[in-house]
Design brief:
The protein has 144 residues and is an alpha+beta fold. It has a single domain, classed as Alpha-Beta Barrel (ADP-ribosylation fold). Helix content is 24%, strand content 29%. The chain contains 5 helices and 10 strands, in the order βαβββααββααββββ. The strands form 3 sheets. It has a 4-stranded antiparallel sheet with strand order 1-5-9-10. The protein has a 4-stranded antiparallel sheet with strand order 3-4-7-6. A hairpin with a 5-residue loop joins strand 9 and strand 10. The chain starts with a strand and ends with a strand.
């Protein structure tokens, strides 16, 4: 299985400086985790944290380059979103609202995974950036 953490280029310097992908709270629910997706194209909820009108190509046109980090799934304690929601202290209404909104934006919660732990960059396979030819380009990281 291939899995990615999606983010935006402005956060790359901080990621490289810290050397880890840190858990953070979602804009939608109070859960401090690292979000990951098996969607190989893009995770639409990342885009829509900024504006529901932008996709990754729209961001690129504004000078905000989408970024993805492929994670080695064997080195991270992953939990499938559908399993997590059965055990977290978040209302069913909040979960359904998040999933409904994500689907409206083109995301698929069935592709979501989380981890509660920071992910060291040593556990990353590649860092890729969206380019003007509308494809992902590897810009760094070494296979572990």
């Amino acid at each position: 299985m291939k899995i990615w953490h999606y983010t935006l280029h402005p956060y790359l310097e901080s990621l490289l400086t810290k050397g880890v992908i840190l858990p953070s709270k979602s804009y939608f629910i109070e859960l401090e985790v690292v979000w990951l997706s098996i969607n190989s194209k893009w995770e639409e909820t990342i885009t829509n944290n900024i504006s529901h009108l932008l996709n990754k190509n729209g961001l690129f046109k504004l000078g905000i380059r989408p970024l993805r980090i492929e994670i080695n799934p064997d080195l991270v304690k992953l939990q499938k979103w559908s399993d997590v929601i059965e055990h977290i202290d978040v209302s069913e209404e909040s979960i359904k609202g998040l999933e409904s909104l994500a689907r409206q934006w083109g995301a698929n919660p069935d592709q979501w995974y989380i981890t509660y732990e920071a992910i060291p960059l040593e556990n990353c396979i590649s860092i890729e950036i969206w380019d003007d030819k509308k494809k992902w380009i590897v810009i760094g990281y070494k296979p572990q």
